[in-house]
Amino acid sequence: TSYLCSPGVGCSGKTMEVEAGRPTWSRPVEFTLAGIGCAVGLGNIWRFPYLCYRSGGGAFLVPYLLMLVLLGIPLLYMELTVGQYLRKGPVHAMANVCPLLKGVGVAMVAISFIMCTYYNVIITWALYYLFSSFQSQLPWQSCNNTWNRANCTDRATNTSTSASTASQQFFNYRVLERTDGVEEPGSLRWELFLLLLLAWILVYLCIFKGVKSTGKVVYFTALFPYVILVALLINNVQLPGAASGIQFFIVPEWEKLLSVEVWINAAAQIFNSIGIGFGSLMAMASYNNFSNSVLKDTLAIAITNSMTSILSGFVIFSALGYMSYLQNIPVSEIAVDGPGLVFVVYPQAFLSMPVAPMWAVFFFFMLLCLGLDSQFAMVEVMITSLLDGYSEPLLSFFRRNELLVLAVCTGMFLLGIPHVMQVGIYVFQLMDHYTAIVSIMFLAFFEVVAICWLYGRSTHTVEMMGRKPGMFFRLCWMVICPVLIAVILVFSVIQFKPARYENYVYPAWAQGIGWLIAMASIIWIPLAALHTLWVLPGSFSEVIRRSVSTRPSTFLPRLSFTQPISKSLQSSVHSLLYSNPSQPAWKGREFSYDLSSPSYSKGRGETHNRQQTKDEIHLNAKPVTHSQMIILTF
């Protein structure tokens, strides 16, 4: 196999979009923005503010930020390193890291597959609200509508537990037209069906060209939500009662720090919010240039994610304080988390704001952007894994990458149809509960074991990072992170509560289906481990030893250069030599490349191979012009 690149500009950086046969981000900032978009999602808006309020207000920031430093940043650093260094999606990357736990990568893809079937329904709801906001009077403003029930009230009240607001009834009886439980499937909501189709079309348009299209989309979808958040904050803090709402959010209750549950919640929020264990960031990092600064991206993604959560808290609770002031009820009776916050409570807050439809349009468009970023990141995990393992047969059948992406999106759309039926909200809540809470914690534990205890101890990470990781990261990888994840896993099992939606309790058979959904991803870890033990040759002890050892062919040989050579060219050589780690053609050889040939078209580039006892590569680099090409032949 031969690869060509211009030595004048190298094979990395802004000028290159394909490195070693694998597409790369056109600019490093595109991956950074895509990573931020993947990490910053709807959970930052509807989960963190409520969790902070219930866990001690400002005091919660102490364990939250501590877990960011001890858990979030080190694990994200390692996960991005694995993806960028191995240049593979989670399935093949984890197989190289630890063959026995290659099922962790398969489980990542399985979880992304399951989540893709239901996560897009949130974008569907956001689109419904977005289109409904383009009118002078918001449809959830009064009880004078055909869908309203007799117990409808125009404002929240603490005098009746049976009354429901116009905003609640709009979501339940107009948008969802929900039934009374999962036992009653109801009929298809055709409006939501068409909007779900539109949502998948938007996702397809974002990713159909791979990182070339995604890299352009994230400039808008990752940045525009901050414009809206800042605008909402400026507007909200000027409203009467906003200060009291913010007090509920930030006033510390230091005694809450004595609760183990608060610390567990902080660690779990960091873990789930950043997206460690989903495989999305690992897959996107596999399209980085080999010399990309992993630590810089890690800090940018992790810190931006946490700061966004805190900013969202100020935006949400300033609005809740305003509602509390208008309706004369405590903030504690208004604050909720989950879909109810962004599709019931916050839309109600718009009603008393000046130019309410404008703020509603901005808010739901922001939700659309946040949802799209997370959704196409999860789809990217599946596309990357499919192309890593079956690129030749898939591209032979589909002819073009765009058609493969279309087939995947179409399949996900069809599987998402149950969520736009009248029973959809119950299906959504059941799947989200058992996937996001149960599966992720088990998967996270085994990923930490594979990466931190096996890959993390490898000195070969120096090849990727350019230097030996500091004592802080090594301590976190080897001790702190595994212990914290194990503690979170144990407490998650102990404190586990069956799924429910508001006051509705799922029947036993539905809970059983929920556990099957959870097992659909977890089961791949033991199955893949058994497969590895079965196929590896040798005695039992040899099989065990080889199954938990990082594959030698995973890593690059040492490089030495007989003459000065640019860093960009060094990066190119690293990437090109590593294009096919399963067949390390460099093993046991010395390669000498003559870069002084005047023209590739005359075929004067020469490659000389001879057997060598050491895994070294010497490049005889001489000054060349921009028009000349490097010829690397394996």
TrEMBL record:
It is a multi-pass membrane protein. It is found in: Membrane. Na(+) 1 binds at residues 37, 39-40, 273, 305, 370, 373-374. Pfam families: SNF. PROSITE patterns: NA_NEUROTRAN_SYMP_1 (PS00610), NA_NEUROTRAN_SYMP_2 (PS00754), NA_NEUROTRAN_SYMP_3 (PS50267). Disulfide bonds join 143-152. InterPro entries: Na/ntran_symport, SNS_sf. Signal peptide: none annotated. GO terms for biological process: amino acid import across plasma membrane. Coiled coil: none annotated. The gene is si:ch211-283g2.1. The chain crosses the membrane at residues 61-82, 103-131, 192-211, 223-250, 262-287, 299-325, 345-372, 403-428, 434-455, 475-494, 514-536. It comes from the Eukaryota. This is Transporter. Na(+) 2 binds at residue 44. One of its GO terms (cellular component) is plasma membrane. It comes from Electrophorus electricus (Electric eel). Belongs to the sodium:neurotransmitter symporter (SNF) (TC 2.A.22) family. Keywords: Disulfide bond, Membrane, Metal-binding, Sodium, Symport, Transmembrane, Transmembrane helix, Transport. GO terms for molecular function: amino acid:sodium symporter activity; metal ion binding.
